[in-house]
Amino acid sequence: MKRILTGFAALALTSTMAMAQAQPNSASQACYLQVSKLVADSPEGLDGLGDAIRRLDAALRPQVEEIKVLEAQLERIELRQSEALHNEEEAANLIALQADAQRINVQLEEKRNQLKQDYSAQRAVLVAPVQNRVSERARAFAAERGCGELKMARSDDLAALQARSARDMTLAFVAWYRQ
Asked: How many structural domains is the chain composed of?
C-alpha cells in the first residue's frame, strides 16, 4: 500500500516539480533533488512533505486494502478455473466461476477508478499545497545556486543524471529549505 501511494506521490511530485528553471548564466549546470529523500522522515527529508504523503496514505489505505482483497479473490477464482479445466467433475462449475470472475473484475475496475478519483481529490487538499511551496522554494534555490535546471529525480533517474555530471543538491536544499 505504501509503495503504491509513494509511487503516486513521487509521480505527482515529479510532475508538479518536473523542472525548476533558474536564470541562465555561464556557470549554470544541471542539478537534481532526490524525491525519495525529500519525502523521507527527518533529518534527511522535508517534514511537511512526508507528513502530507503519510496523511494521503492513511486516507486511502482502506480503499487499497479493499482492492487487495478483491485481487486475492480473483486469483483464487482463476486458480479454480484452471483446475476445473483439467478435472471433468469440476467442469460444471466453470460457468459459475467465470460469472464470479467477471463480477469481481467489474468491482475491481470500479474500486480502482474510485481510488484514482479520491487520490486526485485528497492529493489536491493534502499534498498539493506542500508541493507548491516546495516547488517555489526549489526554483529560488536553483537560481541562488546556479542550477540551470533542477530535476526532481526518482531512483530510476539517478544513473542518467549522474552520467550527465548533474549535481545532487538534495542535502543542500533540505538544509537551505529549513532556514
From this structure: 1
